[in-house]
């Protein structure tokens, strides 16, 4: 994207966000750009009349001067307000676009790509202030250009070569600033991974998630050292550039001052010998100061804008990014599942650099049946389930829903037909009711806000209802330790933390709210539960699954024995497939693992 199209896009964004304030801002800028020139001309007219001893229209001119002063004062305030107003509205629109774009990102591969993550972070930073910086620079640029233009014309009437010299002296500054700001933007892009690591270490040190390990392992000092090393690296790069900036800008400022001083001497000498009038000297002084002031403002703003425009490219790329998954030109309607889901020679790897996670999986999950997936860590179980939800597309082969390739559907329609508990389920720092009601997005607000027999029924089924009811504010209790404002801080009822297993039950309850879905996916839904609770939940799940299509992943083979069929994954391939009875009978991997676990339990029983 070129600079020009970035500038146009920024202006279009501002116009879209706040047309009235934007128009007012442009008009006020034009007024305040011309006001200094008008003041200088009025001053010249007053001084020349005074020097010539004419007093005709003096009062009128003086009133004009006073009015110009008043206009400048009012416009300055108005500009400040309008700029802030445009800025607020632009921020809303640009952030809305950015988060709408991340929401559109239906696949996960792009979101996991570090280069994209950096771009997203820069786009996010930019969306907070970037568009406004660009806008201020462009409109401020217009204002400065009017001031400079007005004064240049003024200078030409007095002495054309003076106008040329003043302008020529400003050109290197403009060029140098543009060069520097390009370097600045390149540096920021280059520093992005450094800043990402800094952020990572800071989050680790202040967050709750790693608090236990950091303390037990004594990692605090190590992490602090690493964070500071990243910070020093970033600072060194910034310092190098700032020094360069200081040198270049310092020299240019000195050059400007020399030119202004020379001009002043010339004007005073010329006035002394009667070649120019007193009014001319006044205009000349105002012009030199005005041009230099406006140009240095323009240069500074252009520098910032150039930088912001380069960052804007990241914002634009992120907001224009497609879904990350190919979209069907005419998506087929997703039918209620009637026949079954088929993996047809599915090969998958997370990227070209990664090894194959699935290697030619052929598998049919018949409608109404439960399939259990078992296998060692890293065998590909979760990957298979992620392909079912179409978080990724197969690298080779296809996943078919009643014979239709998943890629032919609209992905959100497909997902509407699926309920799932993932291995890394979410704990939302919201109320208990909201945590469950999020399972049904269409009615989440109503479900959370009172009409909640369904929320409670889901909690009941997940065996967490009693715990939630007993919380200080029942289902309204925040499941968090974060406080939303100072007044809540001392209220012990504000937030509570649940245990790992309790959180897992809340996640299950959320999925139960989606229980009318065609396909239920349970990726280790009970790994955090105690043995008794696990047994109870699995019985409930088995009843719940009955007659429904489901995929269950579990390392506890006792939990999967009732599944209609069990598939054993080894290194991304289906190594065994059958009922518990047949697999135990064949004496393969499943039989061996089952025996191992059964032995464990029986020896525990003996020991107990
Ligand atoms: N997002 C990812 N990016 C790159 N590689 C991944 C990603 N997720 C998983 N993998 C790799 O894919 C392979 C299969 O992982 P998967 O999570 O499917 O295994 P699993 O059978 O569910 O294991 P576990 O029992 O540990 O949950 C592993 O080698 C893993 O390292």
Automatic annotation (TrEMBL):
Domain ABC transporter residue range list: 341-596
- Species of origin reads Kribbella deserti
GO molecular-function term, one example from the UniProt record:
ATP binding
> What are the residue boundaries of the ABC transmembrane type-1 domain, all occurrences included?
26-307
Spell out where the chain crosses the membrane. Answer: 58-79, 132-155, 161-178, 246-269, 281-302
Statement: the UniProt record of this protein carries the keyword Amino-acid biosynthesis: no
For this UniProt record, the keywords arranged alphabetically read as follows: ATP-binding, Membrane, Nucleotide-binding, Transmembrane, Transmembrane helix
Q: Where is this protein chiefly located? A: membrane
The record describes its membrane topology as:
Multi-pass membrane protein
Classification via PANTHER family? ATP-BINDING CASSETTE SUB-FAMILY B (PTHR24221), ATP-BINDING CASSETTE SUB-FAMILY B MEMBER 6 (PTHR24221:SF654)
User: Where does it localize?
Assistant: Cell membrane
Q: What is this protein called?
A: ABC transporter ATP-binding protein
* Superkingdom of source: Bacteria
Q: Which InterPro entries match?
A: AAA+_ATPase, ABC1_TM_dom, ABC1_TM_sf, ABC_transporter-like_ATP-bd, ABC_transporter-like_CS, P-loop_NTPase, Type_1_exporter
């Amino acid at each position: 994207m070129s600079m020009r199209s970035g500038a146009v896009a920024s202006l279009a964004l501002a116009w879209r966000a706040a047309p009235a304030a934007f128009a007012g801002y442009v008009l006020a800028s034009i007024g305040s750009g011309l006001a200094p020139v008008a003041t200088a001309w009025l001053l010249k007219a007053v001084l020349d009349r005074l020097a010539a001893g004419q007093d005709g229209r003096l009062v009128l001119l003086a009133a004009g001067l006073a009015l110009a002063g008043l206009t400048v004062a009012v416009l300055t305030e108005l500009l400040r307000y309008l700029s802030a107003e445009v800025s607020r509205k632009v921020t809303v629109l640009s952030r809305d676009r950015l988060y709408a774009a991340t929401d559109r990102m239906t696949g996960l591969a792009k979101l996991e790509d570090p280069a994209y993550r950096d771009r997203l972070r820069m786009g996010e930073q930019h969306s907070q202030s970037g568009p406004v910086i660009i806008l201020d620079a462009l409109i401020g640029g217009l204002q400065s250009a009017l001031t400079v233009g007005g004064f240049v014309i003024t200078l030409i009437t007095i002495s054309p070569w003076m106008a040329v010299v003043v302008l020529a002296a400003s050109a290197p500054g403009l060029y140098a600033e543009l060069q520097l700001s390009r370097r600045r933007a390149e540096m920021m892009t280059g520093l992005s991974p450094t800043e990402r690591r800094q952020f990572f270490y800071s989050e680790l040190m202040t967050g709750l998630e790693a608090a236990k390990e950091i303390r037990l392992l004594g990692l605090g000092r190590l992490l602090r050292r690493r964070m500071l090393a990243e910070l020093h690296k970033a600072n060194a790069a910034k310092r190098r550039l700032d020094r360069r900036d200081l040198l270049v800008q310092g020299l240019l400022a000195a050059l400007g001052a020399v030119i202004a001083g020379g001009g002043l001497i010339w004007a005073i000498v010329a006035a002394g010998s009667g070649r120019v009038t007193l009014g001319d000297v006044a205009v000349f002084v105002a012009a030199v100061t005005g041009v230099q002031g406006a140009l240095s403002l323009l240069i500074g703003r252009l520098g910032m804008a150039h930088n912001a425009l380069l960052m804007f490219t990241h914002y634009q790329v992120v907001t224009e990014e497609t879904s990350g998954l190919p979209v069907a030109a005419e998506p087929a309607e997703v039918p209620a599942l009637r026949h079954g889901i088929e993996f047809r020679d599915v090969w998958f790897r997370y990227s070209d650099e990664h090894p194959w996670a699935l290697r030619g999986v052929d598998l049919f999950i018949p409608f109404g049946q439960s399939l259990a997936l078992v296998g060692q860590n890293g065998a590909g179980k979760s990957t298979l389930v992620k392909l079912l939800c179409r978080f990724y597309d197969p690298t080779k082969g296809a996943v078919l829903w009643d014979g239709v390739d998943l890629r032919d559907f609209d992905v959100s329609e497909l997902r509407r037909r699926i309920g799932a508990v993932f291995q890394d389920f979410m704990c939302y720092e919201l109320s208990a009711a909201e945590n469950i009601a999020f399972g049904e997005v269409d009615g989440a607000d109503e479900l959370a806000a009172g009409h909640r027999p369904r929320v409670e029924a889901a909690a009941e089924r997940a065996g967490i209802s009693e715990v939630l009811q007993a919380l200080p504010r029942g289902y309204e209790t925040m499941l968090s330790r974060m406080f939303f404002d100072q007044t809540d801080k001392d209220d012990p009822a504000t937030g509570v933390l649940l245990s790992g297993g309790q959180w897992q039950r809340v996640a299950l309850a959320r999925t139960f709210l989606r229980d009318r879905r065609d396909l239920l996916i349970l990726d280790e839904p009970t790994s955090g539960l105690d043995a008794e609770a696990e047994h109870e939940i699995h019985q409930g799940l088995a009843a719940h699954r009955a007659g429904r299509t489901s995929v269950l992943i579990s390392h506890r083979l006792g939990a999967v024995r009732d599944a209609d069929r069990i598939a054993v994954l080894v290194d991304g391939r289906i190594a065994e497939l059958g009922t518990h009875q047949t697999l135990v009978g064949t004496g393969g991997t499943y039989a061996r693992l089952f025996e191992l676990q059964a032995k464990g339990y029986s020896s525990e029983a003996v020991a107990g």
